[in-house]
């Protein structure tokens, strides 16, 4: 077939370009006939020359043919990064020159399909979905059912990899509707379906589905079924039978390596550690054929292949020496970093965070045990660094990029990178909107193609940027953290919410300690049920004693009694703890039912939350603008009218130099146009945390802004106040936190934010906001104003006890810097005048005494 393609292309070239076109095909055919490393080097040299010479479409098509064969070889020989780059260049060349109009070259089979599979192999799931959907669309358009079915198979495998088994079943069932699928395709679909049914605990349906697959697939699915049920001995029996039929599977080296890893995992569970290690060594030797020694390879031996991560993680679990186990985990982290080098979308990074989190927890546990044995506090700080390394990595990355651009604002490379990132989020937002609307596959495909093109441009820019600005890891020492805490007169309380354990790191100006508690079902339920106390105002008010007991118990569970001597507290929550209002916890038992009298933490602690220690330590350029821009859609003549939002606006105008946009003026268009021109943004509106389909969103008078649209903005505000419901709530991802509106503003560049953790009351919000801006106007510190506004609210005698429930005031949380309160000017002048008067008085008395002494000694 390839030979026929070559003859076709060779004979159909344009006359004046015949020699170059022929040379390209000849080079490709020569390589195909003698594939080895020597011929690859020659081909790469020729490819570079051809790239500088090609002009006509026929020449471009010949070069696409050459690149596809080169990429196929690179993939076969585990040079995945180079293979991806080559396929991407071929695809870009094919699309930019509209070569589909020139010939019937099968770009799906030759490029799109292997490229989609490579993205899946390397964990770049966003580009994988986009690429597979593109060739499914092309196959539908050309009525090529073979490619449609193979696209469905690869898409189902991808979703199976990331655990979306319901989606897998839908894709497979739709693929079965094609009547002309071949036997091999049907068997693959049946096997995929059986695996996902087992994962969903639908064992009977899985057994029925398993009857029509090959012997190997049958035994393998039986092994998975028994494994899922916890029948590990039976699982091993089925696995061995599958191993006897392995020739049927026609595995590549990589697939065979994965098979050995599965065997090792099963043997490890059965406590056959030596057999497990032997299987892992077989897997390593398959992936690194030239590796001479047994044991762990070095970093120089490794490449971007996610099977390595499974190998090293399991090897670490088997290892009895803590130091060697950490070495193994660190190799997993290293391979994870190699994989991430090729990812351009934050969605791909988010989907891969879970494994890093589990690995971090294991490293923390090892180091915590090493500390308990040695009492060496260096192990505690190392554990803290593992804890922080797996938090908000995407926010940290974009923050570093923005900081670099601030330092070099006129650099064309950095400006182009940022524009591409903005465009990427813009088109992602358009796809989301399209999927929520008419779901026109043609339009979605066109948007997907644009996203792919942006991804390729970002990858092309990356080497040049890294060469010009070598990326330094954001390292910090314990002394660095303690110096900052000493300056802020604060203590840092950072949590790591793991799969099995919650760790609490407390760092003060002169010490570091770690505490932990097990995440039992009872503990998890306690945390979840406490969060649900704030679902409705009546829950707390109907049983106040229940609340006081639970709030004190949560205080103890989170081990906050150890920071009693500190006034200023920096809290880095994690996991479900992101949704707990720490200020509303009680520091001691109480029998009172009067909320004003309760020992809330807010009364003696000023709390600033942060997403990561890196954000706490980073000093960004301060915006010199202090004016406020407020958005108040109000939603008159609707059942969502925000009546008290008007009072809120008037209170802000009284306290701040402000531009207030009310009703129709509070439009999304005006927000996009004006937001970056002010030092403070205030949005009093409706918001939603979204769900598994619809992302978090914010309402303007005329339109809705979805989360991804916020990602495309570039803000440098001193403060953002989100006076709207659930702005800190969204789909929770391990490590990255809640995909909330607040996160969108952080991504856009907002350093200090006030936002909400649940649905808020219009009247109480207005009252708290009035107090907040009174305090902020005087102190110029949102850190101070957030605490004081809540204390003022609790002390306000015009507010009833029921409305002083923490439901009404503790939803607002402050994320950002610990700005000290500036002294009120009048108070400053009073103190200055008194001090000056005292100095004058002292000088007067001193000189008077001097005069008296002089008179005594005069002749």
Automatic annotation (TrEMBL):
Domain CHAT intervals: 564-816
Classification via Gene3D superfamilies: Tetratricopeptide repeat domain (1.25.40.10)
SUPFAM superfamilies listed in its UniProt record: TPR-like
Parts of the chain that traverse the membrane: 826-845
Keyword Protease part of the UniProt annotation: no
Keyword Transmembrane helix belongs to the record: yes
Keywords assigned by UniProt, alphabetized: Membrane, Transmembrane, Transmembrane helix
InterPro entries per the UniProt record, alphabetical: CHAT_dom, TPR-like_helical_dom_sf
Domain of life: Bacteria
PANTHER family on file: RAPSYN-RELATED (PTHR10098), TETRATRICOPEPTIDE REPEAT PROTEIN 28 (PTHR10098:SF108)
Protein name per UniProt: CHAT domain-containing protein
